[in-house]
Amino acid sequence: MSSKEAANMGDISANETDLLGMIKEYLKFEEFEETLHSFEKECKSKGRLLSKPRGNTLKDSKTRVIQKDLLSSFDDGDHRVFFELWTENIPHRVKDTDAEAQGLEFYLYIHFTIYPLRRHPVGHDRAEFEERVSFFRQYLETRGGALSQTTEFLPYYALPFVPNPTVHPSFKELFQDSWMPKLRDKLEQFLSVILKPSNSPRLMTLYKVDNNQATQQLQLQLAESDRRITSYVRKFNKMQADYHNLIGITAELVDSLEATVSGKMISPEYLQNVCVRLFSSQMRQSVMQSTDFTRPGTASSMLRASIAPQPKDVPMLPSLDYEKLKKDLIEGSERLQSLLLQAMRWRLTRSLPGEQRDTVLQAYISNDLLECYSTKEKTVLHLMRSTNEIVRQYMARLINAFASLAEGRVYLSQIPILLKHLTETLRKEEKESLTRENVLVALQKLSLRRSQQTAMIADDLIGWLVDELQDSDCLSDYNLEYSAALLMNLCLRTKGKRKCAENAKHVLKVLTDLLGHENHEIWPYVNGALYSILCIPSVRQEAREMSVEEILRCYIKEENPNLNRQIEFIIKQLNSEEGPESDDEEEEDDNDEDLMEIDIDKEEVLQPQHRELSGESLLTTEYLGIMTNMTKVKRKPTPLPQPAADEPLQRPVTPSSHRNIGVGRGGETSRDTEYRQKSGEGSLPHSRYNSRPPTRSGSRPSTTDSLRQSIGVAVEFQKSKIITL
């Protein structure tokens, strides 16, 4: 027999002995005494060995040792030994699903993190504390992340970023004398339950483990299904009751309307009774009885309020020391400058839309982050001229983030030298650089403001854009769309139209060529620019000499009726004898939309090195401030009177408000539909992947009523005052 075969025989013999021992243990446990006696006798006659039973004494001993070691390492603050034993001996199903176990584990991590501070409040080892903080932060980013939405644990997520937790009011309880003993008692009780040895024989345990795993999973799924079914049945019953109630109330209201037509009056008591029944499932009886539903508008306002989304409590980000931050932005190393610019941008782009993001932006503005009002020779904005490409790029990204928010555009418009820096960068940077792309996008968003349009036109940005678009094949689709949209915004101004008239032949040639570009998303902007400049008589004359009408008719195709209507409308303008040049120069218009895009954070070239702080960790560790967050009620757009569907818009509107008017919906592209489906009321950030640049609408004199009704979306894009991506 070979040595390998002998080894195999030895393994089989050992396994058989162990198995026979488990059978003996089971028979003894179930008190099959006669069977056990016969089993032992037959094993002995056949020379089969029985393994010695592993009784509960051994299990109890091992359990006591584990429990003792866990409590000992808890007392000694030895987090590595503790969590090694914790991982090995606490079942995964308990740690992952039991809420009590998860909460206990969270507080245990806090205990070991602050252990040096409790033991030596003054002279503790700073390096040891930092190592424990890093250990706790790693837990928060992995297993501990599941509790981040629980109010009880939420304050402790700031613990790694607070320099001295012992004096912080949020963590006062952790350093009371009673906190640690209470936690130890909870741990001891938990271990006594979880590590309690089973009296079941090993054979039964093996069977249960194999069989119960699948059963337990099915039971969990069944329990969850039962819970959901119960919830759905309860909701369905309530909906059905509400429906029947509404049907009855609706029938009565219809009868009442019919009665009023016949001249019969409705009494206030009747109206009060109907409204009480209408709100019976939503309000307390005492509140309903005290509400005067006969007052005009009361019932309708309450109905609208009942379906409005309820605001959720959003935690505010910590305040920062902006003076220190701005000083390091100007005087710090290029790497520190890049990390700070990245962190400040992330605060804007990664904060939750609404109160959290508004508070961040207001803090930036009130503390003059870009030093708009500074008289210093060198300011934060001068980083646009840095010799380091990453610093320039990250400065451009931050400006783009500011320009993505309505209040940010107001702030940027107050910086006199901003446009000079941006246009200078636009002309110097390489075509495909991210710095140039972010500057272009920021300028396009800033062109929502008329003061910025005026400055861009004066800086001959129209000429630069036309030259860029002439070589459109060298531009990415993203840059092409933004360039075309920016050009249209500037062409909507009288000064912009006259600037185009100075070189009308070149501008017309570039625009008509763009209609043949394979990127159809630029059509609305090209058509809008064409229609705008054709109101200038000299441009119309040049277009006729160039046979622009014949060129336009070449692009009319049966499969694209929307484009056809737009082209016909442009041809109508081309052949008109007079064209309006009104510009509404007295208006300072800007839509109130926030246009934050995921593209601002794309392709991050800066990555933190080992143990290097970045992002929010950098800000809250090195630049924590006191009361620098400024809360301000965000201004709401003033509701403007809406024209009839067949009339041109007389005032600027935002895309989201214009969407409800019903004008030009026929011209909606598939990407428009996708954007509206994803964003609901336009609340999600725009992206090159889900929307084309929307249209900013304003005044535009009409032609004839019949023409208005036939041109559809062509009216929409020309009535537009501003478009923004």
TrEMBL record:
Keywords: Cell projection, Cilium biogenesis/degradation, Cytoplasm, Cytoskeleton. Coiled coil: none annotated. Residues 632-712 are annotated as: Disordered. This is LisH domain-containing protein ARMC9. InterPro entries: ARM-like, ARM-type_fold, ARMC9, ARMC9_ARM_dom, ARMC9_CTLH-like_dom, ARMC9_LisH, LisH. It is found in: Cytoplasm, Cytoskeleton, Cilium basal body; Cytoplasm, Cytoskeleton, Microtubule organizing center, Centrosome, Centriole. One of its GO terms (cellular component) is ciliary basal body. SMART domains: LisH (SM00667). Its main location: cytoplasm. Residues 691-706 have a biased composition (Low complexity). Residues 668-679 have a biased composition (Basic and acidic residues). GO terms for biological process: cilium assembly. Residues 65-196 form the ARMC9 CTLH-like domain. Residues 456-575 form the LisH domain.
